[in-house]
Every structure is written in C-alpha cells, then in structure tokens.
Amino acid sequence: MTPTFSLENAPIRYAEDGEAIAAQTQRIVAGWARHFEKMAQDHGARQQKLWLDMQTLARAFTEAAGGRRILDDARAYAVDAWQRGVLTLDTLRERGNIDLAHEAAGTPPVLVYDSEVILDGRTLARPVNYMLLRILPPDGIKVFDWKRPYMIIDPRAGHGAGIGGFKPDSQVGVALRDGHPVYFVAFHLHPEPTQTLADVMRAEAAFVAAIHGRHPEAPKPIIVGNCQGGWATLVLAAANPDITGPLVINGAPVAYWSGLMGGSSMRYNGGLLGGLTAALLLADLGNGELDGAHLVANFEALNPGRNYFGKYYDLFADVDRLRPSFLEFERWWGGFHFMNEAEIRWVVEQLFVGNRLSRGEARLEHGRQLDLKAIRSPIIVFASWGDNITPPPQALNWIADTYADEQEIKIRGQRIIYMVHDKVGHLGIFVSSSVAKKEHAEVSSTLKMIEALAPGLYEMTIEEQIGEGHDAHFRVGFTERKMNDLKAFDDDRGEERNFAAVARLSELGAELYDLTARPLVQAMVTPQAAAAIRKSHPARVQRLMFSDKNPLMHPVAAAAATARAERKPAAPGNPFLALEKLWAASVLQGMDFMRDIRDTWFETAFLSIYGSPIMNRLAATHAFERTRKDPKELRYLPEVQAAMLGLARGGLEEAVIRMLILLAESRGSVRRDRLERSAKVLTRDEPFASLAPERRAALIREQGILVQFEPDWAVAALPELLRDPEQRRKAMDVVEYIVGSYEEMEPATLKVLQRMHEVLELAPIALPDTMLDPLAGTECEREVA
User: Fold this and answer.
1) Contact assessment for residue 498 and residue 506, using Cβ atoms and an 8 Å cutoff
2) Could you identify which of 17, 59, 87, 280 might form a hypothetical disulfide with 613, taking C-beta atoms 3.0 to 4.6 angstroms apart as the criterion?
C-alpha cells in the first residue's frame, strides 16, 4: 500500500528520502570515480607522450643547432607553414562556396552513386518532403531483380541525406556488389507545412510497397536505418509488421534514458537545457521550423576539441592530401536541414525526454500506440563503445524493456541479433570504409540466411579474416544470449528515475510556455526575422565568412594558386614541424580535458538536481516501466498452448527443423557455415523450397517453442513425426549435413545427436563425411536471395 502524505507516515517517508539520497550520492561518487579514472588514464598517457616528445624535440633542436642547420630549417618551415596556411584558407573558401551552391541547389543527397526518383513523397495524399531513390549500379556491377532489395533510411537529424552511400565502400556499395537492388530514402531541405512523423511513416510504407511492386518475385525488402533512421525503421515495422524483411539498425538511440555513469553525457541535455520548451522556442524563432544547425551544433559540442580544432589542424598539417576528403565530408556536415514544429515536438516528447518508444507508450498519432513487440522481422542492432551519441545501453536496452525475457523473444518468433564494436565512432558506423568492408559486408552476407536461425536473442561476433580484397570474408558466429547478458552493457539503471522527473517538468514547462510566452513569440517572428536568425547562426556564419561572399577572401584563390605552384614541403625531420605537432597535441589535450571536466559537472549537476527527494516525488507519475509478463506465465500464452498441441504432429519438415533447434540449443551458438547450409536446405531443397516463407517461419517458431518448454518430449515424439525408417534416415542425413563434421561438435551436441539416433532406432553415430547435401537433387535453380 502506498504511504500517504499524512503526518503519521512522515517517519516512513523520511526514511525513504534518506535511502534515496544515500543511493543518489553513491551514484554521483561512482560517476566521479569513473570520470576521473578515465581522465587519469587518457590524459596521463597523453601527458607522458607529450613529455617524451618534448625530450625528443629538444634533442632534435640541439642537433640542428650543432649542425648549423637551424636557420635553414626555420626558413624551410616558415615557407611550408605559410603555403599550408594559404592552402587551408583556400580549402575553407571552397567549402563555403560549395555550401552556398549546395543550398542553392536544394541540398541534394551527397551520394557518390547516380540515382533516379522512384516516388516523391510530396505527391502522396499526405505530402511529406521524403523521396525514394533507386541507386543506379555503376559500370561493372550487375544487380538482379529477384534478389532481396535494400531500402536504406538515412538520418534526418540536422544534416542532409546521403551519408550511407557517399563512398564506394559503404552500405550501398556492399549491397550493390552482392547483386541486390538498392533504394535510398532521402529528403528535401524543408518539410511540407503540415507533415507529421505519422505521415513520414506512411510515406516510408508506401516506399516499401513501391519497391515490392518493382520486385514481385523477391523477398520482402531489407530495411537499413542509420542513427535517427534506425528508430524510424523500428516505428515503420511496428506500425506495419507485415511489409518489411529484416531490419538493420545502426547506431540508433532507442532507450534514451539509458547510459553508463561517468559517460553518456548527451542524455543529460534534456534536463539541463529546458526539455521540450527549448525546442518549441527554437521552432517558433524559425517561424514554425527548427533549424538543423541547432542539432549539428549539439553534436559538435560533444567533442569540441575535435570539431573546433582537431579537424582543422589535421587539414592544415596535411592539406595536400586531405583537401578532397575534407570537402567531401563537410558538404554533408554543413547541409543543414529543417524539421517542422510537429515533428520536433514528437521527437523530443516521445523519444529524447519521454523515452516512450522503449517503454511501449509512444503514440504516433491519437489512438495509435506503437509497440516494438509487434515487429515480426528479424532485427540486427549495431552499436559501438566509441559512439558518444548512441552508446550501447541506448542502442540495446529497449530489448530488455520490451520483452519479459529471452523466452518471450522465442515465443513470438523473433530473432534479435546485436553486435558491439570496440571503438568506432558514431559517424564511423555509417561512413568508415573499414566498417563497410567488414561489419556491413558480414551483416549483408548474414541477412541471406538469418531467417533460418531459430528465434531468440543472439550476439554476432566477427573473427579472423579469410581471403583478401573484395573477396575477403570473416568467420562469423552467433552466440545465444540471455537478458542478463545485456546488463553487462549498463549500470544498475537506478538513475533512470531522474529522467522521469525531467519528462514531467518538460511537459509542465511546455504547457506553461504554450499558455504564456508562445503567442507573443509567434506574433513577433516574421518570415523575414526567421530568415535573419537562420543566417546568423554561428554554424552558417563560420562557413559564409570564408566564402567568396566575403570580399576579404578574394585574394586567397590567387595566393593559393601561387602556393600550389611553388609548393615546398618541409622535410619530415624538420624540428619546427615537430614543434608544431607538439603544440597542436597540447592544445587538443587541453580542450579534451576541459570537455571531460564539463561532462563531469553536467552529470553531477543533473543527478544533484533531479535526484532530490522532491524530484523523486515529482517523477512518480512518469517513473514507470511497461507491463511485462512474469516469465513463469509465458508457458500459458495462447501461442505456446497452440504449439504444444503439435508436439506429435507433422512430418519430415517439422522433424528436421526440431532436430536442428535441439542441436543449436545444446551448443548455445551457431557458426555461419552451419547457418549457410541450413538456409540452403530450408530455402532451396525440397520439400522445404515449396513452403511459403511465412509457413517456414511459422514452423521454425512452433518447433522452437516446443524445444524451449518440452525438450525431452520434443525428442521422444520424433518417431511420431517420422514413422517410415527410410524417412528417418533421410531426415537424420539432412541434419548431419547441416551440423557438419562430428569432430567439430561439442560433447553436449554429440550427446543430443546420439539420443536422436536412439529414439529413431538408427545405428549409433559413426564418423562419415557429412558434408554432402542429401537433398541436393531436389535443389531449386535460384540461389538464396
């Protein structure tokens, strides 16, 4: 029974408050410890390197002075630094000009591939600024209409579209090289005046339908969502569970309150910067549109050393080589796009501050609730410890928030696979060539066979490389995981109650703003005033001031041409060059140190403010978890009871699938080569090839439920499924072909296999060559899509 506020309950409430304060103090101290430990390790190692570099530099200057070269080195460095400075300034001038031209052209996608518009969202019944592009394969690459198409949803979080395919080695490139038709969801500069995110979801569903219409013989499209496009992909699949194929979610925040103490500083912004009220004010100052430059500025502030100094010094230090790649990336980074007030309100209210999607409370529109549990397509989640925008807890905790445990994932026939990279940064997930060649390539290869995987929660691991170049692939494994394994990516999550107070205050603040200041702000902001505010944003000014719009930049082009013609780089051993690099490293470390101090203060301030007893009471109405079944009750779900009726029903198909799941359960992991053979048999060999994909998925789900709840009975009932001795031998041959050589099996797997032989009255297992497909003669002509 909940205590009331009566005086007789005061001792109870004071005791609860004392416990809460003690727990919060412990969290703050633990956060300090982690912050300071990271700072000591990072800055200690960097300071030691600086000290060693200073000693090396001192020796270099001594040798230069002794050899009477110091004046020559000084002159050579001065010429080199001047030329690099001029060329850097000219690169910034060109960046400004590119930005102006790019915006004048409507900020088209920055894809390196040619494309054509298949469907423009502005022509739909509820118009949106989205469009579906078909990627035209470059020369030498052939795609097949019958192969499963890809639809890539790029993030609309301040920048323009195209980051998922602005390099040849990219998500787009990986899919094209494998022969898949590729479609890209892009967007125009400004939203349609009345569009909502519900309209965007409908447009994306229309895009999927258009793709299916163009490829009627292909399986349902693979949907790839990057960052913001990741949660948009989940929303699309939750609202339309029957239209999509596998989902690939890259660096997408879904559980917004989650994160590690001593890190994940971006999650505190909602509480420290005004929540929804700040977003509404910025939208009003934009005359109904939120300028994407504000979002980009938030990203830059996460790592000011890199974004305000490091990337410019890197350009200055190696301007001859880095100029093209710098301009290529900055064209996307500076292509600021807009969201209207209804869209940003939904994003902040439902996701950033409210965290409602993860908790099963998000409503896309009135009366339409989104439940991630409704998704039936397999989901692959890619996260990284190096991602400071979407740390692994934010990318993965929605799984634990949605399902009672891993058993419910199996009961619902779902396959959720996660992969966590050690160090790649947020943008590296989408733009890194090395990630495209390894992780994205292996995910693409895995998607061909993922639907042959038994339902459950898995971790995908990528091991040693086999082969070279574009023919290279890696040894991939899938290890079955439990919900408790996800806890290793996060703390105890006790601090998440603090964010419930933020959510409630955000609602109250937005309501107060709506009723008081908002009418005045909207009355004062004209379209001309909004345009002036937009042009004066620092992110735009810093680009415009270096463009040819600035008369002071007019001589730079000629000076750069002269510098390029007379270029004289300093020798690599020049001590003044080493001094410059030492200075740059010290400046960058100083800025990083100040960032780390800032993040520590942000976390302490947030937890101190929102962890107080009064805030805990304020949070009571919003500090809830979604209702999840007790794991003990899962057995009595209708899906489980219906599956149990089929324990002794079926034939060769049910028996083979059941035995494969039993063996996979005994191993706890699946290697990709076994999964490849399983996918081949279940999709290309008769009698499985004649099964509709939905029927095949239903069989795997039903047999998985039986194995999960009655593994012993599932084995004992096999003779009822396989009454004919010849059929029993055939089924066992298929299973042994898929699981591979006996020598590679775990003892537990051999034990289960031997038990199957005994139950089916087959000879004890020997050591034959099991690598020949016993159903090869029934194989379909088409390879697995």
Assistant:
1) no
2) 17
